[in-house]
Amino acid sequence: MQEADKNKVVVLPLGSLEQHGHHSPLLTDTYLVTAVAQRVEQELSEQIYLLPTLWLGASDHHLDRPGTVSVPNHIYTLMIKNIVRSFAKAGFQRVFLLNGHGGNVVPGTQAITELANESDIYDNMWIALSSYWTVAEPAMAPEHHGMETPHLTHACEYETSMMLFLHGEIMRMDRVTSSPPLIDSPFYHSEHGGRINVGKRLVTWAPTGAMGKPQHATPEKGESLLNAITGEVVACIKDFETW
Amino acid sequence: MQEADKNKVVVLPLGSLEQHGHHSPLLTDTYLVTAVAQRVEQELSEQIYLLPTLWLGASDHHLDRPGTVSVPNHIYTLMIKNIVRSFAKAGFQRVFLLNGHGGNVVPGTQAITELANESDIYDNMWIALSSYWTVAEPAMAPEHHGMETPHLTHACEYETSMMLFLHGEIMRMDRVTSSPPLIDSPFYHSEHGGRINVGKRLVTWAPTGAMGKPQHATPEKGESLLNAITGEVVACIKDFETW
Amino acid sequence: MQEADKNKVVVLPLGSLEQHGHHSPLLTDTYLVTAVAQRVEQELSEQIYLLPTLWLGASDHHLDRPGTVSVPNHIYTLMIKNIVRSFAKAGFQRVFLLNGHGGNVVPGTQAITELANESDIYDNMWIALSSYWTVAEPAMAPEHHGMETPHLTHACEYETSMMLFLHGEIMRMDRVTSSPPLIDSPFYHSEHGGRINVGKRLVTWAPTGAMGKPQHATPEKGESLLNAITGEVVACIKDFETW
Amino acid sequence: MQEADKNKVVVLPLGSLEQHGHHSPLLTDTYLVTAVAQRVEQELSEQIYLLPTLWLGASDHHLDRPGTVSVPNHIYTLMIKNIVRSFAKAGFQRVFLLNGHGGNVVPGTQAITELANESDIYDNMWIALSSYWTVAEPAMAPEHHGMETPHLTHACEYETSMMLFLHGEIMRMDRVTSSPPLIDSPFYHSEHGGRINVGKRLVTWAPTGAMGKPQHATPEKGESLLNAITGEVVACIKDFETW
Amino acid sequence: MQEADKNKVVVLPLGSLEQHGHHSPLLTDTYLVTAVAQRVEQELSEQIYLLPTLWLGASDHHLDRPGTVSVPNHIYTLMIKNIVRSFAKAGFQRVFLLNGHGGNVVPGTQAITELANESDIYDNMWIALSSYWTVAEPAMAPEHHGMETPHLTHACEYETSMMLFLHGEIMRMDRVTSSPPLIDSPFYHSEHGGRINVGKRLVTWAPTGAMGKPQHATPEKGESLLNAITGEVVACIKDFETW
Amino acid sequence: MQEADKNKVVVLPLGSLEQHGHHSPLLTDTYLVTAVAQRVEQELSEQIYLLPTLWLGASDHHLDRPGTVSVPNHIYTLMIKNIVRSFAKAGFQRVFLLNGHGGNVVPGTQAITELANESDIYDNMWIALSSYWTVAEPAMAPEHHGMETPHLTHACEYETSMMLFLHGEIMRMDRVTSSPPLIDSPFYHSEHGGRINVGKRLVTWAPTGAMGKPQHATPEKGESLLNAITGEVVACIKDFETW
Predict the structure, then answer these.
(1) Given CB atoms, is E88 within the 8 Å cutoff of chain A?
(2) Which domain CATH number covers C134?
(3) Pick from B51, B78, B89: CB nearest C75
(4) Fewest Cβ atoms closer than 10 Å to its Cβ: which of A110, B93, B103, F21?
(5) Boundaries of domain holding D38
(6) pLDDT tens digits for C153-193?
(7) Can you say how many angstroms the Cα of residue C225 is from the centroid of all Cα atoms in its chain?
(8) Nearest to B115 among A196, A199, A240 (CB)
(9) Domain count across chain F
(10) Given the DSSP bridges, would you call strands C9-14 and B197-198 parallel, antiparallel or unpaired?
(11) Does the global pTM surpass 0.90?
């Protein structure tokens, strides 16, 4: 890094290596968040300092499916704490952890919460964490992209569409599976979540490891989503820079 | 406990002991979640097994304010894991952690996530965690209760109203403070949160330890909120029982 | 809390939620230590700052009995360390951890020992921990109260008497059980302890979870004990204030 | 070890390496507990399996005095847990941790408590821990040995007497120091302890690192004490064998 | 992954992101071990299952140099333990951790040692860890490649040569620095190590963060080294497969 | 210790208590490293401050053999970290951990690496760790001592020879066992190690717990080895003193 890089926003993409149904690769989350991050870097090359994607994620709820490589939540928390400590040590003042795997949100947030509470050295830093689908939520509204399902979940219409656009050659759409949600109540939907958090491994909710309706995925939807996401993340980081 | 209690939903209210501005007591969160839980128990006495509220919470972000008593997030995670382990050991099959303090959500969710991932003994259990304001979100819509602010935050119009209704005699409305939000952007509001998680201690956002506009609180609003919340939590637990 | 509270002795009662035979409630220890603490507060209202009782204790040796909710010793140690850290942060200088559950003594003492060793910030503080039956040992001598057994143990004549006096309506004296001690040698008594510490779960010593002879309990003995205990704890805290 | 050794009581002496005033060596506790253990072994050679003394103890409260080598309490707990686990793995069924340093009692008891609670593999084992002065308390009564002080504390009349008898050539009686107790109340004596536990480092209580009145020590008193202690520990282990 | 992959040797390349003098990129170790791994995969595509390189390494000894991103050793140990646990869960039986950063060796070996000791589930697995320069030591002898320095160290003639061959466009040979070793005795050389291990941060040994004589690096040497290394690692894994 | 001792090199011998075949005692490593250390002290009495040998080592890979007493690697790391912290606290500036058990090398090195990385208080200290056979490697070359095997391993010709010289009366040469190595390839030898680290318990490699060919041991070889080792360690510490 150069001296001037310290004034940039460090962006660390957070991925995973976990089973994504029978049709999408283990590195799906890593591919997607990396694609978003690289597009953002193209637009904000002077403002962000982009790190390589951390593919090792908190995916223990997927370990029932062979191929998943993961650390438990509390170790992921320790990893993120020490990574951000490294940024502080280097003199960075703004850190944006751009997440691409749902399972990383809780342990990642645990990490940045504890850092702020533990030491004054973070008082002069802004440390943020969000998933690209949360940052870009309004822009990902299904009606804007012709989606048949309401939200991005896991190995779903959304993720599969973006993978088809980016890495169609390694997708196995002939092996797509789909199943109805196990729970669909006003308080909780076993794929989209809801108003309560539930402790269960993925195998409970998704027999084949895919959620939503990946069969409706198309590369066109994927391109459209990716463009929308990139725009929102760019806008968010520009906002973040002004804090 | 009796043998028959094992078939009930264990409800453990999670509170805190932390500064709540100059006008509301340290135990505000504990009082409120206890009040909700007791009202729920009145309606579901045959279905729930209610534990005493755990007042020790994850409030390290409030420690800058004297009076706060707290454990760091990762220790709160360990507490919750071992409490739920105790329930499993006793033979309970449904656990509902009814939360009343925002800072408990991440470490509590970290706990139930890790439990499910670590051992098959939780496979036959349903373990849920949610804050009463999340469970009751639709029913707490400001227009239903004459609120001037959009959400429950901390020592705010919502919490203060309910405290006035429940424990008006210990409230110090003569000492109410209020201040504008530090950040109010499309991506993040320093009181209501937003699309990103940020690692900062409360002292950054709220100079006096109160958020929102507690000066607009009234006991009438509090009663109305409490009734609505109780109804939603009752409905949620009835739904949870059917899973 | 008020600024002036910092000069008071913080008193934190430590309880448990664990099986107490078939006749006394899970919260027996919590009820008793709370009753003692409240009586002490009545006499020392200007001198002590009383916190709510922490009912979550180190009762893993009782987990074989359903209903017990507990954390392992080393986590209890972490809880106590962080609670006392909170008191230090707030500016208190005298902390008295008033214990009501035998299993908390070792991990609680581990906590205050480590705090003193770890940081100079505790050098100006006095941090004490004791069980009410240890503080009041001379005053609880069995001959003063007409007791038939020599010491307070667990769900015993002593605890049951005080519970009968305080909460007789929830006691189930029709279900009292009693059994002879498993080991009764000059070096160790399986109920009263002795000159050595032994690692065993309670189920080894007490088949029904009750020790001593609770059948001899009366509310009159309980009232007498409670008065004696209160007097001694008051005297002890007055002494502690002068250090 | 031989196959037959598994039926013996494993005896592990626990010492320390910590400052003991200006007149007694760092290894005082280690020398003393080793001497006791060796005398016990002479009498019970067929019944006990004696390990070498573990000199690394929990003496962080002595670290203010150069020369002390120590681990914090929670690490000592982990050491003892894993040592006893090794005994279980080898097939031993009775373990006696014979302690010679006060600071080891709490973390050692934390260890054996947690082991019993954590796993059924210890259900068939008897695991005990005690300091030689506690086992031998009645036999060490001051009037039996012509002592001028009431209890064994640290670098005191008792320890110094035994060291003079055992290793007089390395004692520096010309450098003996003594000072009055800092606190001497009905509830707490800063050298002998009392009815409450207090978190303080030794430097608070003993300016030179010696307690009691070591100037009254004589080798004759030491021999008398050592004989009495040996007798009681032998009796205790014989009792322990019958459990 | 496919079912048949379980019979392959999992190869996980371990890299770092740390300062490498003023002339070589932060990801030097990651680039190099990835290049080796990819060449090995080309030759052993049927026999190995190659994972993406883990760039997050144990580089805390480099944190004095801005840009380094690292976790402490004990957290790296936990990461590796959980990664290998994931492989065991998936059914793999041979794991080769191919290391490219010196700082990973000790914590990585700590990890695989503990795994083998902790659980029988690893008894049927072969878990190996080595750095490519150790596997290929004989083949990297300086005389085979025209090297002027005896060993690969850090940002040195060896690493720089391979980087020039692989990624010459990002190398800054105009900024190469070099300095004499601080200690050069028969027992220890501050760059090449020796017969003792020493606890020191890199800043002690290498003022600019480069060791050895990178000014002698050429892409030709790099190509020659890379070919030799690949050959040896291929041979090693073929050997490993037969165990 | 005396004030002047602070200028000396602290030497802490690290041993183990673990099975060593059927012919050599559990404390073999402890006896040997102690013998080396005492001989070194005789030659360098003014320069080194020798501590008692720490017999509790990281021998979990030997736990399958009854009699072994051990802690897991990560706890050994914590022990060593806190021991060296004690030396720093006392004012020592040079620490040499003289190891006598192979299993201690990785966790001991993990310890001194982390200490250097964690705090500046070690910047002015030199902290070294090495096994006596590594320090003395050139001087132990088999041809110098008439050895039939190439390296010191475990309960082998080398260790047994030295034990015969030092403690012949407790050796059971009538019970010596020997077995061929399980793996003997250019990359790995199951007794001497090789170019890769492998996670396996000792029981895999050595059915009786002895390696190499102890039947060739003689006290004469042992004396010759011990003299050579002592000379090299003395030379090494003299060198270390000059850093």
Answers:
(1) no
(2) 3.40.50.10310
(3) B78
(4) B93
(5) 3-240
(6) 999 999 999 999 999 999 999 999 988 999 999 999 999 99
(7) 14
(8) A199
(9) 1
(10) unpaired
(11) yes
